[in-house]
Design a protein that fits this description.
The chain folds into 2 domains: 225 residues, MFS general substrate transporter like domains (Growth Hormone, Chain: A, Up-down Bundle); 237 residues, MFS general substrate transporter like domains (Growth Hormone, Chain: A), CATH 1.20.1250. Strands 1-2 form a two-stranded antiparallel ribbon. With 495 residues, the protein is an all-alpha fold.
């Protein structure tokens, strides 16, 4: 006997596990593409042999486009009032998903022998098309959370499941991709071919394979999107929800208002620190493992150590927050990350490379453990910053606060890696030599660069949360009480 589907008062299937799993699948699909961003820098630096200064400039250019194209495409979706068979949001997600089937691979077209100007054009065009397709899928996907349910508790569950989908979608490529695209070189007798300068086994980046792996990830992402579209239920009229409202506000006034919002500035600075450690260090990490440790193919598996603590805290984060407060718990985490950052400066001093690598792994684990708390509550910190804006100004401006927070996050994703590439060039990295021909001094310098990046990351997180973000548990209670009183008074006046 088949189980009867329970319906809500509007005749829609009641909110349940299918919605949560489907929404998680959506961010898994997004991250089948987004997680390739770290590989982009390595591919163009190592396989395409693009000079560090040029790649830095191009990366900054396309990331600025990345930062501004969300509100542009979001406003286009907002303005679309046509009726679609499956609904506007699902339709745009499907269009973006179809584009991402191949768009993710366009930035990995393997032509290492092409002239520099051809490479530059391919990089810019490939990245712009890829990013546009990603935005077309991701912007309505993020906004769709408010369409699935109006219940605050159910929305919180969707947010948690989105984090699960995001983490799984990030971890799989992070761990598996290096194993698939790096090859340890051996001679005709099967003996390791070693770099005479560094003494480590030479590893070659298989650029042609990156292209095909990106295509496969596009297919996996498409399957995840289709699953989400079929299984998730829209229960709220989508024409009442906008994907982006920043066009209603004056940009200068919005920026000034944002900079006066201490919690928003603090949470944003902490997010910039997180991106510096987790994103900007990706290429430097890969080069370090290839040139200093000779373990580029295992670099992703080792980086997993920095991700796992996020899963450790997820079941307990509610209890931690209720007992100590979001700010207080996050500050404790940043102190742990600072300790991990300090330990990072130990591993370059250890002559034995095996011991040095395990010391690095230990420091990374401590760094990730501290960051795990902040990662679990980062979006909740921004939600509180929106309440703070209303508390201080009387205006509820979700669009302004979130859009500028997102803008700075995306800008950091471009500025950080661009600066790192310039520093790599200054530290002796020569693009034409690939990973095989770098000097021992350059390989060693990469260790210090990686250690420095994680330390700066920890410092920025500490400054942002401990010194700038000013919503501790006591202040939160006062703020919420006063806002509740205002809202109750507004409801009474309306009656």
């Amino acid at each position: 006997m088949s189980k009867t589907t329970q319906l809500d008062k509007n005749g829609k299937r009641k909110f349940g596990m299918w919605d949560k799993v489907a929404y998680a699948a959506g961010d898994f699909g997004c991250n089948m593409s987004f997680s390739l961003k770290g590989t982009v820098q390595t591919f163009w630096l190592v396989f395409m042999a693009m000079e560090t200064g040029l790649l830095s400039a191009l990366l900054l250019l396309v990331q600025i486009w990345d930062a501004v194209n969300d509100p542009l495409i979001g406003s286009l979706i907002d303005a679309d009032r046509r009726k679609y068979k499956m609904g506007k949001f699902k339709t745009y997600i499907l269009i973006g998903a179809i584009g991402l089937l191949v768009a993710g691979a366009l930035v990995f077209i393997p032509v290492p022998g092409a002239p520099v100007w051809i490479k530059a054009i391919l990089f810019i065009l490939g990245y712009i098309v890829w990013d546009a397709c990603y935005t077309i899928a991701n912007v309505p996907y993020g906004s769709m959370l408010s369409l699935v349910t109006e219940d605050a508790g159910e929305r919180a569950q969707l947010s948690t499941w989105r984090s699960v989908g995001s983490m799984v979608g990030n971890i799989l490529p992070t761990v598996l991709l290096p194993m698939l695209i790096w090859r340890k070189e051996v001679d005709a007798n099967g003996n390791p071919i070693k770099n005479p300068e560094t003494g480590v086994q030479v590893e070659t980046l298989l650029g042609e394979r990156v292209f095909w792996v990106a295509l496969i990830m596009g297919v996996l992402g498409f399957i995840a999107f289709i699953f989400m579209i079929k299984k998730i239920t829209i229960r709220v009229d989508e024409n009442t929800v906008k994907t982006n409202e920043s066009e209603k506000f004056n940009v200068i006034r919005a920026f000034a208002s944002f900079m006066k919002n201490r919690p928003a500035v603090g949470a944003t600075l902490a997010a910039l620190g997180m991106f510096l450690g987790m994103n900007s260090a990706v290429t430097a990490n890969t080069i370090m493992f290839a040139t200093y440790f000779g373990q580029a193919s295992m670099s992703g598996l080792i980086q997993l150590v920095g991700f796992l603590p996020m899963f450790v805290f997820m079941p307990f984060i509610k209890k931690l927050v209720n007992r100590f407060g979001k700010k207080e718990a996050s500050v404790a985490g940043t102190l742990v990350s600072l300790f991990g950052g300090l330990l990072m400066f130990v591993f370059p001093l250890i002559p034995n490379k095996t011991v040095a690598m395990w010391t690095y792994v230990g420091a990374l684990g401590i760094f990730g453990f501290g960051m795990g708390i902040y990662t679990c509550v980062s979006w909740a910190l921004m939600a509180d910053a929106i309440d703070y804006n209303e508390w201080k100004t009387g205006r509820r401006e979700e669009g302004t606060v979130y859009s500028l927070h997102s803008f700075f996050r995306k800008l950091a994703q471009g500025v950080g890696p661009s600066i790192v590439l310039l520093v790599m060039g200054a530290l002796g990295y020569v693009s034409d030599l690939g990973t095989q021909g770098q000097s021992a001094a350059t390989a060693y310098n990469m260790c210090w660069l990686v250690a420095g990046l994680y330390m700066v990351s920890a410092v920025l997180q500490f400054v942002g949360i401990a010194l700038i973000y000013n919503l501790d548990k006591k202040t939160m209670a006062v703020m919420q009480a006063e806002l509740d009183e205002r809202h109750a008074g507004a409801s009474t006046d309306a009656e």
